[in-house]
Predict the structure.
Amino acid sequence: MAQRVVFTFDDGSLASLKQVKDRGEFSSLGSAVRESVQLSEALQDQVAGGFTEVVVRNPQTKQEKTIIIPSLQKVAKRGA
C-alpha cells in the first residue's frame, strides 16, 4: 500500500537534493529520495554482516578509494 510522505527541506538541503536528482538523472525529486533510501538500506544490510567500508574503483586506472560513511559507522558501533 502506497503512502504519501511530505518533507520540509531547508534551502541547502533542497539544493543538495536537486543536485542528486540532476547528477543521477532521476525523473523526479521523489525518485532521487526513493533510490537514496534503497541505497542506505542496502549499505545498512552490509553493516549487519560486518562490512563497514565502501570501496570504489576507477576501472580505467584501477585506482581505489575508500569512502567512510559516518551513519554506517554509528550503526556498526551499536551492533558491536
